[in-house]
């Protein structure tokens, strides 16, 4: 098991394309090898941690339209 990642000082941001009434996720980009993701409506709630390569592949798929209109 690995040590937990301290997200206390994380710099969170929403996509510049997030204009949907607050139903957004935020990411914190400054963690080598991992991308923390959280619900913008619950900033004190839990965060999911994704391997950076997997998150990059997901973003590339969204940009390529692999998931339809999201």
From TrEMBL:
Top-level division of the source organism's lineage: Bacteria
Stored Pfam families: DUF397 (PF04149)
Residue ranges occupied by any DUF397 domain in the UniProt entry: 10-63
InterPro entries per record: DUF397
The name this protein goes by in its record: DUF397 domain-containing protein
Organism the protein comes from: Kitasatospora kazusensis
């Amino acid at each position: 098991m690995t040590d937990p990642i301290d997200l206390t000082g994380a710099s969170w941001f929403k996509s510049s394309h997030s204009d949907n009434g607050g139903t957004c996720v935020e990411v914190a980009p400054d963690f080598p090898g991992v991308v923390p993701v959280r619900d913008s409506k619950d900033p004190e709630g839990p965060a999911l941690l994704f391997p950076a390569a997997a998150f990059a592949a997901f973003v590339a798929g969204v940009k390529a339209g692999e998931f339809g209109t999201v």
